[in-house]
Amino acid sequence: MTVYTGPVTATGTVAPSSLDIAAVQAALKEDAIDAWLLYDFRGLNPIASDVTAVGRQGGHLATRRWYYLIPAAGEPRALVHAIEPHALAHLPGHTERYAGHEQLEAGLRRLVSGFQRIAMEYSPRCAIPYIARVDAGTVERIRGYGVEVVSSGDLVQRFSAVWRASEIASHIEASEKLYRVKDRAFEAIAARTRDRVPTTEYDIQQLMVKWFNEERLISDSEPMVSAMENAGNPHYLPTASKSRAINADEVVLLDLWGKLDRQGSVFADITWVGYTGTRVPDRYARAFGAVARARDTAIAFVQQAVREGRPVRGWEVDAAASSVLKEAGYAAEILHRTGHSLGETVHGDGVNMDDYETHDDRRLLPGTGFTIEPGVYFSDFGVRSEINMIVSERDARVTGPVQPEILALA
Asked: How high is the pLDDT of residue 127?
């Protein structure tokens, strides 16, 4: 992620002391924030761990509370436990140590002294839970020192969600591999349907797992393969003990996500829909047509805003897509947001295309990647179309083919 600009070691990790303090300080000044206070306790704030690389420094434990404050101007400051004095030794700045809770209280008060507005991984009313990583008690404590705590949401994007050129390349390569797996899966479904070979969602899923291995793709879950009523459940996953037969003249939805099996790779995530017959029935075609229009409207909205130099926020993209579905009469069949951030995890730390589950007012920043995936879901079937986009300084692009209509697989 772009917070690190220093040399890379032979193992692919970032060399110590490569945190780009100047870039963070420039962002703080631009956003009129006095400082960014990064805090963690036993991994409760993975954003802080990612930004500071704590835990990736060999030989140092971090089991106690630690604080790292980057001011808009001046030298960073750190507060660490006395039995873990080197927890932040790889970062620039002055470090103070504490042991007992009274020393912690006094040290933390000194750490934030002189600042009025400090950013933390906090979201007002938990509007964006992906950012709300700091516990309420810690926020209360900082406020008790007379400091205003504001959300670090856009800071996190800049320094934990913006992709380098190598990460963009890894996404593109992963995307190409996913599309190959998707094509092979639909070919297998078509062949088995044509030849009347009994097959299940789980059978196709396990074929895809094999092809993931061949492509050297890794993921946090096996792919989604869902037919008919199971496609109406956006998070359905077949298992060996719970799976449905795929029959002729049925909707089949494939959702697959993965990244390259190497350090620093980021995810791609796609969804396509097929039909195991020669002619897609009008009801399914109409629903997918509305989904495709919603997807394309969201894509066009992002691209136009970026090309015109206008800021665009996640909730606006969701609103653009969902308005199409609502106008088509599918308001009751919307069950999720329009898209999510992508990163080293499939749901990254950046902005989500969301005005449904949350109201995500973070900006789409150059170098960030995300999905556009509207869908509509019924008791007997569901359809979704998912593509990936990357924002650059002057444009935004889709990183793979876009499905125009449900694929007839017979």
From this structure: 87
Query: H helices then E strands: how many in the chain?
Result: 9, 16
Helix (H) / strand (E) containing 49: helix 46-52
Q: Which amino acid, residue 342?
A: L
Listed by start position, the domains of the chain span 21-160, 162-408
Nearest Cα to 359, choosing from 348, 351, 367?
A: 351
Residues 6+ apart with CB under 8 A from 10: none
Nearest by Cα to 171 from 370, 374, 373, 394: 370
Q: Are 215 and 180 in contact (CB under 8 A)?
A: yes
DSSP bridge pairs for 117: 148
CATH assignment of 162-408, among 3.90.230.10, 2.60.40.10, 3.60.20.10, 3.30.160.100: 3.90.230.10
Rounded CA-CA distance 381/122 in Å is 38
CA distances from 50 to 18, 290, 344, 379 (A): 13, 39, 11, 41
**How does the average pLDDT of the chain come out, rounded?**
93
Beta-carbon-side half-sphere exposure of residue 293 (alpha carbons within 13 Å):
14
Q: How far apart are the first and last CA of the chain?
A: 45
Q: Which residues contact 403 (CB under 8 A, 6 or more apart)?
A: 272, 273, 292, 385
> The whole model's pTM is what?
0.86
Instruction: Render pLDDT for 102-152 as a digit per residue (tens, 0 to 9).
Output: 999 999 999 999 999 999 999 999 988 889 999 999 999 999 999 999 999
Instruction: Determine what percent of the chain is predicted with pLDDT higher than 90.
Output: 88
Radius of gyration of the chain (CA): 24
Give the angle subtended at the CA of 58 by the CAs of 57 and 61, to the nearest 5°. Answer: 80
Q: Does domain 21-160 have CATH number 3.40.350.10?
A: yes
Angle between helices 101-112 and 136-143 (to 10 degrees): 60
pLDDT per residue as tens digits for the range 155-188: 988 888 899 999 999 999 999 999 999 999 999 9
